[in-house]
Amino acid sequence: MRALISESLILKLPIQDRPYDVRDTRLKGFIVRVQAHTGAKSFLVDYKRGRKYTLGRYPVLSLKEARQKARQVLGEVFTGGDPQKALRKAKTYTLETFLLKEYLPWAEAHLRTAKATTKRILHDYSEFMHVHLGAIDPWLIEKSRSKRLKGGLSAATVNRSVGALKTVLNRAQEWGFIDTNPVAKLKPIREDKNVTPRYLTKEEYWRLLQAMNDRDRRLREKRDSGNAWRTERGYGLKPSLANLTYVDHLKPLVILALHTGARKGELYDLMWRSVDLQRRMLTVVGYYAKNGKTRHIPLNREAYEALSAWKAQSDDLSGRVFPSGDGRRMNHTRRSWKRILEYAEISKFRWHDMRHTFASWLVMAGVELNTVRELLGHSDYTMTLRYAHLAPEFKAEAVEKICG
Fold first, then answer.
1. Are 62 and 138 in contact (CB under 8 A)?
2. Phi and psi dihedrals of 35, rounded to 5?
């Protein structure tokens, strides 16, 4: 059957007992196929005698997009290309093999977030790791994210997860492993961008400081007790913690997070060369910043004193400010942070909420939103506006101006 393939024609095509093709009279080789019994429709291109290439399923793939793809395939064949090459790769590579063998090596050389993105996908889409790239479709991902939403995850978390997968599959498409990205047209779940951020009240802040001080005291007592036990038995002693301002990294990390608004990753990657105590300035280098832009954060009294004391007791001033025990990047504050919150009786508060606390305190102190935006490193006002409600006096002044 030959006809001009249009939207109206596709919708009117009848279901028959056997599958059949409708060939387009405008673009030679362009076909819409109707499956028997179900009536499912898909687009194909007949690019060589006896050789057809499946473009996609209708309506996931629109008629306009299908025509454009058909022209691309026919153009590729005309120049000597093989449109089945990507299809063969898609059938050979699973999501896991592509992620680990192709994407990760490239991402480690070009992206700061390479390992984090890979880890997120391996975790969030573990059930799809053995699915071939060509078999991943929007419905598969839609079912996955619906399941995760029902499991209690927030829309923002699920959107970030799908965004990470979309990034990886974009590369798969660019490198010829798949013809189209099945996640490209999947719309993000609606989320409330103006949800009230969680921040510490002053009372909670003092409880948090007290809990950290108590923790330091307990660790000092434990070290002294341990050394007394070693002395009795003639064992070597561990370094005393008595004369140190901080027993470990936790308290100075928390103080900096609360008084600079720096993200956890930015503090983990902070190098001593980016700390200028003389000018009282901390620099977040663009490579480690979320938006890729370098920003400078002035150190207030609390942040300055914390960094000065931490520097005085640090052995290596050439590397990271907060290295792990083996000198590598810090990655283990979750357990100690959770215990501190329990001691301080602070609930529903994440590490990232210290960044919200920094911004909220600034706004409540009368700092203008543009300054808050620059200190936080937001690219535009959208994120910063979440804190605007904390300065109601500005809105009150605005509406008062229309009074006669």
1. no
2. -80, 150
Residue 103 DSSP label? I
| Beta strand pairing call for 20-24 and 2-3 | parallel
219-239 b/e (C-beta count within 10 Å ≥ 16 → b): ebeebeeebeeeeeeeeeeee
Measured between alpha carbons, how far is 12 from 9 in angstroms, rounded to an integer? Answer: 5
Quick check: helix, strand or coil at residue 47?
A: strand
For residue 353, how many other CB atoms are within 10 A of its CB? 18
Q: Tell me the backbone φ, ψ of residue 366, rounded to 5 degrees.
A: 95, 10
Alpha-carbon distances, residue 93 vs 52, 161, 164, 183 (angstroms):
22, 21, 19, 17
Read off the tokens for 262. 């720096």
Q: Which pairs with CB-CB distance under 8 Å and at least 24 residues apart come from 61-66? A: 61/180, 63/5, 63/6, 63/7, 63/10, 66/30
231-287 pLDDT, tens digit per residue, is 999 999 999 998 899 999 999 999 999 999 999 989 999 999 999 999 999 999 988
pLDDT in tens, 87-136: 555 557 889 988 998 899 888 877 777 888 899 899 999 988 988 887 88
CA distance 314 to 299: 19
Q: How far is it, in rounded angstroms, from Cα 217 to Cα 206?
A: 16
Distance (Å) of CA 281 to CA 117, 177, 264, 324: 31, 47, 18, 24
Q: Which two tokens stand for residue 360?
A: 């909220």
Helix, coil or strand: residue 280: coil
- What phi, psi does 52 have (nearest 5°)? -125, 150
Q: Which of 39, 52, 37, 43 is nearest to 22 (CA)?
A: 43
Structure tokens at 281: 């300035």
Count of all residues that appear for the chain in the document = 404
